[in-house]
Design a protein that fits this description.
Blueprint lengths: L11 H13 L12 H20 L1 H5 L8 H26 L5 H9 L17 H18 L8 H29 L3 H20 L11 H6 L7 H19 L9 E3 L4 E3 L5 H11 L3 H14 L1 H30 L1
Antiparallel strand pairs: 1-2
Helix pairs in contact: 2-4, 4-7, 6-7, 6-8, 6-10
The structure holds Phenylacetyl coenzyme A.
């Protein structure tokens, strides 16, 4: 067992060696441990973006909460959106173990200084989009996030275990919704195909730019934060999704999709990377709407945060007074 000690930060060389040894031995770096500043900064960047994505990610589906076609579908959608809020909270808590404050991260999100996933800047035009988000977006999220359960940073890795279990459930509910529609009328089948056509390419872009154009991958892999490159995970997602698309009876909107016998994998076309860059820079179809909504929710929630803080401080004062009077009694 290799331990990272942090009590005496007097010998950076030795501390750095211990850090490297922990990572190489597939052990976990914990909040109390010494870590390089750049490792800490990379984790804050990725975990904060991930947390913001979960919270902003409630908006596209939230669009259908009041218009779900049955009570059952409404209850399922509500539960899914609540799960996503929970994921955001675990992730903000994981980021806070690195010395940042959730309020500060939220401020960075709504002022545009931190990112969230490009996928949530597309509109949800029909109820089939809810199913496709579950199937493709949660499916892509699972491919990307299961390896993060083995991330070198303990609090992030542990948060991902529970998140992945819930995302798998979300993916299955999306598939079940789509299967139901595909067994329905021709209009319902067309609605599914239209949603698949709109979400396929943005889902592939969730994995990030191609490896040659991904400035962070090499270092994040060396630190075992990321366990696979963006392109490796994208391929894994395509291979996982193709049989499911065949089972559903939908066509994926890529004429270059073909089975490559030699590689034992599907060949597929190149996403439009300029679109990803535009969406990341804030020029996607819904970027302004998403951030405006998030900012408004944050402002409208001010009184709740203030009330919770006032209550916590009242409880703390009452607790201190009770302890002081107990001590006085025992002195007598
Ligand atoms: N969107 O060098 P790389 C979900 C940025 S949660 C926006 O490759 P990296 C659950 C990247 O940040 C979905 N920005 O970066 C759900 C970097 O910019 P920076 C979120 C992107 O970090 C389902 C620059 O481009 N999941 O879906 C995107 O090594 C349904 C260069 O890129 C996570 O956050 C993008 N797609 O790899 C909720 C998973 N791609 O920061 C509701 C954790 C790249 O240097 C409904 N994150 N960028 O200014 C990761 O695995 C990684 O951060 C990547 C990017 C793979 C996203």
């Amino acid at each position: 067992m290799v331990a990272v000690h942090t009590a005496e930060p007097g010998a950076p060389g030795e501390l750095a060696e211990r850090f490297e040894a922990v990572v190489a031995a597939e052990q976990r770096v914990e909040p109390r441990d010494w870590m390089p500043d750049a490792y800490r900064a990379t984790l804050i960047r990725q975990i904060a973006q991930h947390a913001h994505s979960e919270i902003i990610g409630m908006q596209p589906e939230g669009n259908w909460l009041t218009r779900a076609p049955s009570l059952r579908r409404k209850a399922i959608l509500l539960a899914k959106a609540q799960d996503e809020a929970g994921h955001g909270l675990y992730l903000y808590a994981a980021a806070e173990t690195l010395g940042v404050d959730r309020a500060e991260l939220t401020e960075k999100l709504i002022s545009g200084r931190q990112k969230y996933s490009s996928i949530f800047n597309y509109p949800t035009l029909t109820f089939a989009d809810v199913g496709v988000i579950g199937w493709l977006v949660d499916g892509a999220a699972i491919c990307n996030q299961v390896p993060l359960c083995r991330c070198s940073y303990g609090p992030y890795a542990r948060a991902m275990v529970r998140i992945c279990k819930e995302e798998s459930f979300h993916q299955r509910q999306g598939f079940e919704l789509l299967m139901t529609l595909m067994r329905g009328t021709e209009a319902q089948q067309r609605m599914v195909q239209d949603a698949v056509d709109r979400w396929w390419w943005p889902s592939l872009m969730m994995f990030g730019p191609p490896d040659d154009d991904s400035p962070n991958t090499a270092q994040s892999m060396a630190w075992r934060i990321k366990r696979h490159t963006n392109d490796e995970l994208r391929q894994r997602f395509v291979d996982m999704t193709l049989p499911q698309a065949q089972h559903l009876g939908v066509t994926l909107p890529d004429p270059e999709l073909s089975w490559n016998e030699a590689r034992g994998s599907w060949d597929f076309g190149e996403p439009d990377w300029s679109e990803l860059q535009r969406v990341i820079k804030g020029q996607g179809p819904c970027n302004t709407q998403r951030i405006d909504r998030r900012r408004a929710a944050h402002e409208q929630g001010t009184w709740v945060r203030e009330a919770a803080a006032a209550y916590a401080s009242k409880r703390a004062t009452a607790g201190k007074q009770a302890t002081a009077s107990k001590e006085k009694e025992s002195d007598v």
